[in-house]
Design brief:
This protein is an alpha+beta fold and about 150 residues long. The chain has one helix at about 1-50, and strands spanning about 50-55, 70-75, 85, 90-95, 95-100, 105, 110-115, 120-125, 130-140, 140-150. It folds into 2 domains: about 1-50; about 50-150, Immunoglobulin-like. Pfam families: Flagellin_arch-type.
Length: about 150
């Protein structure tokens, strides 16, 4: 009889050890999932705060307005946060080609692009052929597409 209770005690201890290790593994996995959800929610929150709309009229000339063979568009900050009015805030693709050397200026003046303010974006586009063109603007994850004709 003593041998039977010793075997039961060993099995009981083994079951407790296995249950504790399973519980520990589940707890650590739940913590990892929770951390991943928190990080993703912060990213989504930043994207929601940054929102922009292209307010230029596609029927009006946006190319070569000043005679310098450049593209000029106007963009309104419709998000809930202020953004810096600098070229690093924007990613611009014209007909699939990434544009550098953006000139950014707040229409009402200032260095900060406040909610409701409009900025003027200008960049050189020499020898842009006549026809239909597609401009893609990305502001902190928010994407806008603008089609115009030259």
């Amino acid at each position: 009889m003593a041998g039977g209770s010793a075997a039961e005690l060993i099995l009981f201890i083994a079951a407790i050890v296995i249950a504790a290790s399973v519980a520990g593994t589940l707890t650590s996995e739940v913590d990892r999932v929770s951390d991943a959800i928190s990080a993703k929610s912060l990213d989504v929150s930043a994207e929601i705060r940054a929102d922009a709309e292209i307010v230029s009229d596609p029927g009006a000339p946006v190319y070569n307005r000043s005679g310098d063979e450049n593209v000029t568009i106007h963009v309104r900050n419709t998000g809930v946060s202020d953004l810096p009015a600098e070229s690093g805030t924007f990613d611009v693709l014209l007909d699939g080609e990434y544009q550098t050397d953006l000139t950014v200026s707040v229409v009402d003046g200032g260095d900060t692009w406040h909610r409701g303010d409009v900025v003027k974006l200008e960049f050189a586009a020499p020898d842009l052929p006549a026809g239909d063109h597609r401009l893609k603007l990305v502001v902190r994850g928010d994407e806008e597409v603008f089609r115009f004709r030259t």
